[in-house]
Amino acid sequence: MHNISRLWSTYLLPAIRIIRPRQWVKNFFVFLPLFFGGQMANTSLFIEALITFVAFSLAASSIYCLNDIVDVEADRQHPVKCHRPIASGQVSVLAAYVLMMVMLLLSLGCCPLMGDRGLTVGAVVLGYWAMNVGYCVWLKSYAIIDVCVIAFGFVLRILAGGLATDIEPSNWLVLMTFLLTLFLAFAKRRDDVLRMESTGKPPRKNTIRYNLTFINQAITITASITLVCYIMYTVSPEVTARFNSHYVYLTTIFVLVGLLRYIQIAVVDKKSGDPTKVILRDRFTQLVVLAWGLSYLFIIYF
């Protein structure tokens, strides 16, 4: 029993912390084409989307390993990230590289399970992985480009979900996904700027190219454009015809409240450093997302 406990605390738990399964919630974006296509009850297509979700989750975990390897020195100077397994010395860099490749191989190994569609989905997953390798070693050093890469990663999730289920995502869905995740990325950068102002040390190399004035304006702009884009989506003839409903625009209420709540968390509470943590812990945000989802379920399926 003692050996099992030691194995868990010494090897398994640090490995789990590196691959960050909590962050896999981001990959639920692959289900959006299926959801908005009104095919969530289609078992075969749902399984295809589920396999894509697993493939993206494993690929993302591979990138988290690389990110911690590249950022190990910076993480050791960070008050929170210094506890990460590599930065704290719980996991060696070599072991992290091995885990990174295992996660990538498992991710690509999922794609053949989808048959003919697996090849194209696998290409998107591999493209996502390659883009994020570039982000980890180079692109994240450049302000604005860094957040655009993050947002485009979510667009690739949408495209992969569409390819897996043979449901083409609408231009509106792709555009709103990019805008919403760009908004969240800027809100996350705000946390870095606050830390830089309080400690005098930038947590990232590119943080010196941001300040509160710019970040606040970027958050306002992206939130505003996201809301306008969503309103245009809900009242477009294409959407009302597809859903056979003129009440889609009512869901705008939840989008507006959700954006305002996140801005409140970022500006008032100053806790926007981890969007996933906000979604998993903030009850207000969870209720808004649930209400939005239920309203669409009613409109699309009933």
Helix content: over 70%
Shape: globular
Strands, count: 0
Whole-angstrom Rg: 20 Å
The averaged pLDDT comes out at 91
Query: Largest sheet at a glance?
Result: none
Strand content: under 5%
Distance between the termini: 53 Å
Give a structural overview.
The chain has 302 residues and is mainly α. The protein contains 13 helices and no strands. The chain has helices spanning 2-19, 32-36, 43-70, 72-76, 93-110, 117-137, 145-165, 171-199, 212-235, 237-243, 252-267, 275-281, 283-301. The longest helix has 29 residues, at 171-199. It starts with a helix and ends with a helix.
Main features:
302 residues, mainly alpha, 13 helices
List the helices and strands and how they pair.
Layout: H1 2-19, H2 32-36, H3 43-70, H4 72-76, H5 93-110, H6 117-137, H7 145-165, H8 171-199, H9 212-235, H10 237-243, H11 252-267, H12 275-281, H13 283-301
Short description:
The chain is mostly helical. It has helices at residues 2-19, 32-36, 43-70, 72-76, 93-110, 117-137, 145-165, 171-199, 212-235, 237-243, 252-267, 275-281, 283-301.
